[in-house]
């Protein structure tokens, strides 16, 4: 076995290990090559999208599908090059066509490798020794197995994407399409009646937990970005974190203690933070120096929240400082994750955006 063939076998093992860790082991950040390749493609998509000006949001929406195609091509090319390095020294002797001479250049080896990874005996070249026949059989099994794995993997990714979008749309509709957690809280307890709120929040917590685990199992989900901001992971996570913070810091704890202390509220808050933390660890997020700055005057924000709840007939006992302290614990996560996906805080924190707009007027 030549050095070239050893290098080819090593390359195939490397790419197969990357496919195994990405598709079968299914843990965010465990791939050997795929995470870095995906980040490189995403950076390229962002660079191209920046040329479109106002249309950058539409351009970025192609990022996820482009990464899927490029990842499949990357794995296919890596396996083909590895197989070609193994096959090239055998051309003209153990591997040759049925008639005529046999070129021994690398491009011919790539052609033969591609055929052997797809169909045994495909093309004009065929193996003529036991060793090369076993090689062609192994390549065929590898090609068929990788194709099957990729198809099933993509089905799971797009199923998880649909469920994530369903959760995002549900949260947006529960805010009255305003993106305001105060509006969502008012709708959960009309006239101060939160009897159904616990079950509603429990359903949301279950869907959020499924979404969090989907991002942990299928890192490709990180790169699927939609033009509509309400589909953003950052936005619906922000709304749910803001909602649970408002429940804990603005509602009258005596009258609404059952909701304030309920398990779904804790679950929603913890799971939303876990989801953002997963993205923060495994997605190339924005550093502290690049984070969008935004003043943290929560007094006017609390005033707007209290007015919304008052109109809904909900009794409150607000603690503005506690609200600000709790928000300060999770908002940096949103600020790191959101901008890297092409969203700014004006699209995520809708209540503050409206308040700032009203101030400017």
TrEMBL record:
Record carries keyword Transmembrane: yes
Keywords in alphabetical order: Membrane, Transmembrane, Transmembrane helix
The organism of origin for this protein: Rhizobium leguminosarum
Domain Potassium channel residue range list: 90-158
Membrane-spanning ranges: 6-26, 62-86, 134-155
Gene3D superfamilies per the UniProt record, alphabetical: 1.10.287.70
Protein name: Potassium channel domain-containing protein
